[in-house]
Q: What sequence folds into this?
């Protein structure tokens, strides 16, 4: 029996992930939005990706979003609970739409392009009072990302309240910066995040997002600044640990005592979207079960395997994660 | 040489069609929006359908819409000018989105379902001042539909102004009621249309829409009321002619002197959407070239053939229209 | 908000459905297994179909099957829990395969054909001791079908024990005969079913299966025998009610006091497979919420709508069911 | 074991079919050549269809065509020998192209349309001297059609020579008129066919083609003339039997002594192309094994089942033919 | 607003491109023509590709071809005017076919393979007298390629006449050698091109084609000969400038005074076909707006981006061209 | 005329290949079995691949398998005889199923994964007495692989008997080790193969399989052991020649007198499955026509080209093989 099947028997929700899941429409690999008439619908939600990743690793997770009660809303929920995530605390509404975005995959040097069409989504109306706080209170962790406060003024307020209230209810908070430049400018982001981050137990950022938060210019030789920036982050917001992801260079974490590192892997990129979410899932799994080093290790393996998968969601086979961590390189199994 | 190729050599734009063209996304025949991940993008615009239908019959037409300057906007325009329609007077903007809607085809008794997602479209910000009035003034006819005033308060004002200004510039006006109950209630529609219809030279309505406009209850035996309603329409708004389409029962027109009729045809329905637009194109072609009877005849043939085509646009072969009008029934040509 | 979204907020499992779910592979409509290389995978399980149908109508259901712990087993479970069905009591094993079958859709007079390849499936090794009896005991109803005892000698024994033990635990039993002539001969079926049916509270059979059970010859004029057969069934096995489904002729039920009937509907058949399962879901929903007449009514509406859907599972919109029951015939909603 | 598998063990070639097989390109059902970019390649050859039909019924057949030695030529041959037909006598050449044609399926009243692009094909250069006469001489029957003499002046001569030489070598000749109005006018056809038909042992024609050959006007009430025309055909060309196919009305044959008839069947039409070829295969099978009545019976059953299949080739399951002839109407087998 | 939308408002045709556009049929990436039945239709025309490329960069262009008046001919024209190119001067005829070719993409070391099937195309009958010389005379530039004189003896004569007459009418001439070894041998090509090239203002050649024209052997170390060959070309035919494209090595141009160079770019090749045409479009755009250096720069950027696109036509986003020229390397925009 | 077409005229079967051919089902490139519903069916049989490879090179081959007489069995046979392989000696049975397996392609470092579902296949019941020994006796060579004795105890016995009886009938034996670790453990394999290999004239093994057979540990520096192992193999089983394939490192053979080597090629991998079978076909072709060096050369070229093809079968164009052997590197032919 493969390990990926074990999760079916665990019942308590340990991590609740909260945020908007959109529908993403993309033409086939290399094709142009302008020219192609065949679009594939994907699930596009950072926090639900984390929840699915946790399920794949055997940790039962819940996802909370706010959706209109129509076929598109049901489509979003079906795509998440199919992988075992509990969606019973979702908020259904008669107002607002399902946010959508279009992706054109590109081919170097033609970039992957995104057209967001998410204004007015039901998710952008989420308020702290919409939530089932008993449900959240029963979990050990709440996972949020920096996309939520960027959605609307309402969401900016809600996110602070949700973070505060969850901590008050005994939940720990994992927070991924996930800066989206098309949604808000750096100074607005800094202001809003500055009110949320003090509640975070785990603070996760890409190197670029960390520099945005610290209002730094991007430097040629950024590797030298990594650990300094990481320490600054840690000292500014005082989480239990701060984590910096550095793409192919791996990742590094600091918990006030030691710097922990994990390496990147060679891989064939199929779809980069969702790699950060897969990292978060691996990080939480490792951290919850074996500590920070395991967190980084599982995070890097999950992010790597995610990029070999066409979907944005980390539909990863746990056996593959462990084979990768054990350094076993098999190309064919038969 | 098939007749459908002749249009390539004609240059003057005789009819300008103005209105919103959206992108329509639909899963394959019978499939569910909620379950299926493969969507096909279609051009979805009543007035641009009319323009394409006119080109197929050999009348050069222009289409005017308002679109955001991105890949989705270009996609809309490409899909229209591919068939010879002039789109050089289109209005490009940096604000607003491309309106979209989702269609699930259904299978009796499961109905075809529509999810509109068109709020905030660039088209809903159209003002009369956006338009190139020299361009419109050079045409013989302007074609509008009752969808445009339903899009927004701005559009409601614009449509009246556009109708008035076009007539003042020497253009004749063809107007199809095209009532969309999901966009506005009957009384609002009646009020707004009441200000536009006096400018119409040709007034086209389905039987149901006419009853809405006349604030009538839908009766079991509506065929008896048809001609009475048509006369009322004619007398109320004084067009050159009023036309009622009655589905499989055919159509009937009144020009103050005589009642003209055309019959329906047996057919295999592939896609009903756009049948009314195809009728309008046939009506205009017939009316401009040979008078009202020819208008109804070509309108019915175009509507019939449109329903055998998977697209919403009337990509009809003129040879097929004439074969149908001549009563030739061939099932295979080889 | 459409009604189909309400189910997300209900938590207690009222009905547990138990049986094998296979993967079905079929080429596109009309294509031949022998000639076509593109196969679509479908979920193929009578009892899980019933569970999904119940979820669509707002009754929380669980499904129990026995599956090998590999990607194919996970595929089966994902396809069921995507629609809200609880699968946490599923049994995972290291032995046995996922049963598969191939379907070729046909076109009249070329019949739909099935190639079963289900021997040695994990499901065929199911024993009563494998089950989580606490889980079953918390439900109001258990749903079984006559396919399970046909799978293997082991299953023949298990089914009797499961029926008995569920009743003892306070569960009511719904049982659909679902006779599969390719799996066992009539006399074997009669012998085995004779030991199970006495436990049934609801006994559901097609007209043909009832005649098999009663060892009758199929007669030309079978409608005259319907009610007599139904009474015989009822009197032989003493359920709370016995139900006979008669295809396009509708259905009829008997509870010892009265004969209840529901009519069939005109429809466009897209896929007949799973119509009986959809009926069972509608029957249970109606019966649990409003009694036997409602059961038949919802059963017929669900079966009708199911046949308009490409999947075997009743992915029906509850709004469509109620529109059909209310006699509203809309072909397009826009 | 299904009967369709038995043919694999028979070795002697009883019927040789000779003629051009083209590649046919068609967009999906209902789509337009002008609008759609996805084309499916089909095997398009009347005589190779007959050969495949014979293999399906258990009679080993050979096919002879003339093809350029490139990937398209190999594609044609692969598509024929896949079903057991012997293609070892095919003629490969360095000159000429593979004939192609485009089909647009249509939907009533929009007709199925054909664009032939077969000029200059390798097949149009076939000469009697190209053939392996030992190979042909070992067969019992040669099957030709009226398409071959229509391909080119060369082919017109070759066909007469081939017919004569085959008869001289002891082969019987089956000839299907298969008149193609897009390839040659009636008077040319009459002249050329007049030189070939005297060699035919079996002469097969549609009712329409027979009227063309007899230079008759198409009459409203043609059923009254059927038998008279059939007799005229028989008396003019003196075959062993003449056969008239009358679409849904069935078919009728005359052997100088008696009129034999077979009825048509209700069916769902998937693809009409190749129905006549399927008839020929059934006719030859029945005639060779049990006489003229069996010929018509198998011919009608094969033609009916062919029309339920997406390909032009009669990929029919022999079990289905016999079930149909036995009057067994099953819609689902499971 | 993206820059690619601006072209819609420009009206005067500055460049007319003339040549054959065929339909290209190709199976999916890696698949074999011989084995695969799914073909995608592409637009295949060097000169129409240039016209589309010019439109993408904001220069209004016209395309002239000669086509049969059927669905395939319309398909060709639709595929070109969809992107804004004016096709009103196209020549429609009742004779000849649409040229087609088949492409199998290959995978190293299995080469991309082409099967031409273009003999007898309508385009091969083009005569100078067919053209609308007023239309051509209104343009600043005419673009021709060396494919046209290779099509037929008629075309060989026509091309010289067209070049001469266009220059006499005040048009400048851009000419791309585009040598096709499958259409004619080098000595024939040299003879015919020798009569055309003296009319060229811009003469464009790949390094290999230039060596063919100069009757040189291909040398191992060809980079040393580049500039010498370029000078020879320039001195022999006296254009305003001669341009040599050298694949990944970039391109070089000579105008009698200076050697101008542009570098190549790293890229992921999706489809190499049409890269030269994209270069020509970029060259013309740059040359017309800013001179020879800009011509080479835009040419290289356009050729590079073209190869990342599945179509043969340069459906390039002008923003991408300018980002590439500015050295901005973004892989994801979100 | 391309060389690949010549094989159609050769009639005598020189090589008979015997073994199981399964149906393989795989989702598209990169997709997951668990997530994707679209599966493509491939022919999956090592020995039939060899037969097809021989046909592509011009050597007529036969294939013998044992299959159930249903649509799946016919599908297997059609897929083999389409390429000219003689399948007339196939064994049809009413018992057993067609073996199937599922493949998920993977993307580095996510491995290609296989789920075998072949237990109980008709092929696993093959006995020596099932075979047509006249048919085998007329061939020069019999090709077997180490998969057959791994299928069942019956097959383990049959393979020894078949090898012995073929040699006794005058056939030479080519045997490819083809060790499948999912089917049997090394010691069982060694025991069984030890009884078969003494009959082999050509013994082919991958480096890894040879080490398994020789019960060696896999060493870091295995290249040093290659020739020693090869000699050991040769000396142990005394074939005419023993051949070791070493992936990208090429291959090496020993015939008791000399070591012969062939190099590998750079390539773009599309599908690795079947590369060994393609090697065997090339080896046999080269060995039969020109000796051992030609065998290795053709083997490496065939294996290389196979990996550029999506199918498992070596549908290779002989022209490509010879171009590769001649060192001609063309990327585009037009």
A:
């Amino acid at each position: 029996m493969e390990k990926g099947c074990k999760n079916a028997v665990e019942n308590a929700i340990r991590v609740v992930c909260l945020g908007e899941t959109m529908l993403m429409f993309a033409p086939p690999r290399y094709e142009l939005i302008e020219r192609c008439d065949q679009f594939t619908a994907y699930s596009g939600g950072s926090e639900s990706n984390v929840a699915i990743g946790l399920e794949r690793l055997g940790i039962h997770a819940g996802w909370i979003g706010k959706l209109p009660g129509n076929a598109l809303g049901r489509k979003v929920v079906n795509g998440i609970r199919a992988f075992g995530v509990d969606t019973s605390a979702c908020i259904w509404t008669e107002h607002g739409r399902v946010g959508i975005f279009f992706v054109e995959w590109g081919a170097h040097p033609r970039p992957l392009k995104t057209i967001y069409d998410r204004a007015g989504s039901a998710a952008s109306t989420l308020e702290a009072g919409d939530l089932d706080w008993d449900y959240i209170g029963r979990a050990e962790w709440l996972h949020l990302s920096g996309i939520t406060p960027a959605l609307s003024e309402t969401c900016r307020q809600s996110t602070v309240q949700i973070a505060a209230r969850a901590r008050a209810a005994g939940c720990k908070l994992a927070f991924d910066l996930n800066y989206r430049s098309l949604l808000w400018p750096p100074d607005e982001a800094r202001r809003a995040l500055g009110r949320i981050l003090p509640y975070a137990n785990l603070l996760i950022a890409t190197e670029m997002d960390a520099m945005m938060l610290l209002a730094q210019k991007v430097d040629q030789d950024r590797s030298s600044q990594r650990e300094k920036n990481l320490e600054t982050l840690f000292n500014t917001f005082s989480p239990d640990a701060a984590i910096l992801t550095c793409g192919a260079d791996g990742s590094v974490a600091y918990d006030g005592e030691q710097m922990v590192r994990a390496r990147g892997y060679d891989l064939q990129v199929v779809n980069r979207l969702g790699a950060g979410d897969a990292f978060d899932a691996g990080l939480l799994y490792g951290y919850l079960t074996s500590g920070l080093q395991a967190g980084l290790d599982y995070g890097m393996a999950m992010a790597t395997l995610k990029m070999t998968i066409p979907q944005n969601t980390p539909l990863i086979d746990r056996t593959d994660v462990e084979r990768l961590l054990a350094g076993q390189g098999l190309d064919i199994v038969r």
